[in-house]
Amino acid sequence: MASSLNFAVAILVALAVSAPFARGGQLVCEELPPDVCAFAVSSGGRRCVLERTPEGAGRCQTSAVGAGEQLSGWIENDACVRACGVDRAALGLPVASDAAEDGRFARALCSPACRDGCPNIVDLYATLAAGEGISLPALCEAQKNGGIRRMMAGMYEFGAEEPAPAPK
After folding, report:
1. Mean pLDDT over the full length of the chain
2. Which of 16, 43, 116, 151 could cross-link 142 (Cys pair, CB 3.0–4.6 Å)?
3. Distances (CA, A) of 25 to 6, 19, 21, 44, 78
4. Is 86 exposed, middle or buried (0-12, 13-18, 19+ CB in 10 A)?
5. By CB neighbour count within 10 A (0-12 exposed, 13-18 middle, 19+ buried), where does 133 fall?
6. pLDDT, tens digit (0-9, with 9 covering 90-100), for 111-154
7. How far apart are CA 94 and CA 35, in angstroms?
8. pLDDT digits (tens, 9 = 90+) for 68-99
9. CA torsion angle for 65, 60, 77, 102 (degrees, to 10)?
10. Distance from C-alpha of 42 to C-alpha of 48, rounded to nearest angstrom
11. Could you give the CA distance from residue 140 to residue 31 in angstroms, rounded to a whole number?
12. Taking the CA atoms of the chain, what radius of gyration do you get in angstroms?
C-alpha cells in the first residue's frame, strides 16, 4: 500500500514539474511546487527560492540571484540534494559562511560526488561564497586538509566581516 502511495506521489510531482515544459519549455519558479523549488533555476537563469506565505504555506519565488547560463531550466535531483547535504525545505538562499563553519556540511559540499556531479549546487554556493569574500575551492581545499576554522579565522583577520552569531 505504501509503495503504491509513493508511486502516486512520484507521478503527481513529475506531472507538476513537467507542466511548465509542456507549455513551451519555460520553467517559471512561481509555478513550481514547494517540494522541488529550492535549488531550481528558472528558464530565465534566475534561482528559485522557497518562501512562506503569511498563512505559513510554502511558495516558490524567483530570486535576483542568477545562475550560469548552462543551468537555465534546472530542477535539482534528489541524488544531488543528498550528496551535497542540502535541504530542499530551507527557506530563502543559504548563507555560505554558515555552511563553511559546519564541518559536516562542508565535507558533503566538497565531496567528489557533489563537486563533480552536482554543478547547480556547487555554482550556487560558489556564487554566494564569492559574495561573502570566500573562495569555495579554497574552502574545499582547507576542508580536505582539516583547516576550515583556521581559514575562516584568517579571512576575518584580513578585513572580511565576521558573521553575526546565530540567534539563541
Report:
1. 78
2. 151
3. 27, 9, 4, 11, 22
4. buried
5. middle
6. 999 999 999 999 999 999 999 898 999 989 888 776 545 544 44
7. 17
8. 889 999 999 999 999 999 999 989 888 877 77
9. 60
10. 7
11. 35
12. 17
The torsion angles phi and psi of 108, rounded to 5 degrees, stand at -65, -45
Q: Grid coordinates 507549455 are at which residue?
A: 23
CA distance 108 to 61: 26
* Whether the Cβ atoms of residue 144 and residue 137 lie closer than 8 Å to each other: no
Mean pLDDT of 55-62: 94
Output the nine-digit C-alpha cell for 137: 575551492
The amino acid sitting at 73 is: G
Q: Phi, psi at residue 150, to the nearest 5°? A: -65, -40
- Joined together, the cell numbers standing for residue 166 give 546565530
- Beta-ladder partners of 51: 59
